[in-house]
């Protein structure tokens, strides 16, 4: 395979990532719903009547309105189009392209290399446990390479939900990376990298291993022949498994990457564990599956397009 596997995986991932980007953006917006530290314009302060006018002492009462009702992915999507325009659904798509070029090309190319190296030379079969191991390794390496683009993508996707005065207004992924490095330091490009690596290991191991295992089983048992139907069935199941397994880590990753740290002020979260604890404490365990419907709605078609496109790209490049 060599470089060819990385190129094939990268092309397929760019196509899949670009076509499903609006669903990914809706997922990110839903995962950020209900964060306790966000400024609330409806929060107001009242000076009570029992304050002491001549003593210099007064009390302040904060009236916290009830949290806004949670809305579904269709409502979130319609609200984005209504308030920000149709083009807002593709906010951060340049970062998605860069992310797929770095992250997915690396993980898919490396997974294929490990599969070839570890497969039985006679049968060309690879046990499920080794597929999972190959996915874990490939996902970790890919995530470490692609983390800067991931941070930029999350921020660009989430920017429209902030008050106008607080928006970052990145012009492109290059602008986002440059400004982050200048204002927050180069280390900010790897903010949440431990979460990105953990999520990528889970997604890659569940997605690629499940796809290969189901496809091989369907063909071996004679249920389906090796064709488009088999590829769609296997990739559909793989996408669902990946969504279920990765959603909790994805919620925490999104929040850590998106947090805004002002100079001299304490960060909303000190790390992944702190974010997880605060999220569960203030919003409940179900918060870890916020955005699950759009996650499935995005992960399943992404995985189907990814593997179907990959098969076609391999056919086109088989003679090169």
From TrEMBL:
Solcar repeats lie at residues 4-117, 126-217, 226-316. It is found in: Mitochondrion inner membrane. SUPFAM superfamilies: Mitochondrial carrier. The keyword Ribonucleoprotein does not apply. Its main location: mitochondrion. Keywords: Membrane, Mitochondrion, Repeat, Stress response, Transmembrane, Transmembrane helix, Transport. One of its GO terms (biological process) is mitochondrial transport. GO terms for molecular function: dicarboxylic acid transmembrane transporter activity. One of its GO terms (cellular component) is mitochondrial inner membrane. It is a multi-pass membrane protein. Belongs to the mitochondrial carrier (TC 2.A.29) family. This is Mitochondrial substrate/solute carrier. It comes from Dillenia turbinata. The lineage of its organism: Eukaryota, Viridiplantae, Streptophyta, Embryophyta, Tracheophyta.
């Amino acid at each position: 395979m060599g470089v060819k596997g990385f190129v094939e995986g990268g092309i397929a991932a760019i196509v899949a990532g670009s076509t499903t980007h609006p669903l990914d953006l809706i997922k990110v917006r839903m995962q950020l719903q209900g964060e306790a530290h966000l400024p609330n314009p409806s929060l107001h302060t009242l000076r009570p009547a029992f304050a002491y006018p001549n003593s210099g002492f007064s009390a302040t009462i904060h009236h916290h309105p009830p949290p806004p009702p949670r809305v579904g992915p269709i409502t979130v999507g319609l609200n984005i189009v209504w308030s920000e325009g149709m083009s807002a659904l593709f906010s951060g798509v340049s970062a998605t392209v860069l992310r797929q070029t770095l992250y997915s090309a690396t993980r898919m190319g490396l997974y294929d290399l490990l599969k070839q190296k570890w497969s039985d030379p006679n049968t060309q079969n690879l046990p499920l446990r080794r597929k999972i191991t190959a996915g874990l390794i490939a996902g970790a390496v890919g995530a470490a390479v692609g983390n800067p683009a991931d941070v930029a993508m999350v921020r660009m996707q989430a920017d429209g939900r902030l008050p106008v005065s607080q928006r970052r207004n990145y012009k492109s992924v290059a602008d986002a990376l440059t400004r982050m490095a200048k204002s927050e330091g180069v280390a900010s490009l790897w903010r949440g990298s431990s979460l990105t690596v953990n999520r990528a290991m889970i997604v890659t191991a569940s997605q690629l291993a499940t796809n290969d295992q189901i496809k091989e089983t369907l063909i071996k048992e004679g249920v389906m022949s090796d064709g488009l139907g088999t590829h769609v069935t296997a990739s559909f199941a793989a996408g669902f498994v990946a969504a279920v397994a990765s959603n909790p880590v994805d919620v925490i990753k999104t929040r850590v990457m998106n947090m805004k740290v002002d100079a001299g002020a304490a960060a909303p979260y000190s790390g992944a564990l702190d974010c997880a604890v605060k999220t569960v404490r203030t919003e409940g365990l179900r918060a870890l599956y916020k955005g699950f419907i759009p996650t499935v709605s995005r992960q399943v078609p992404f995985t189907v397009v990814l593997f179907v496109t990959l098969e076609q790209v391999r056919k086109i490049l088989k003679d090169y």
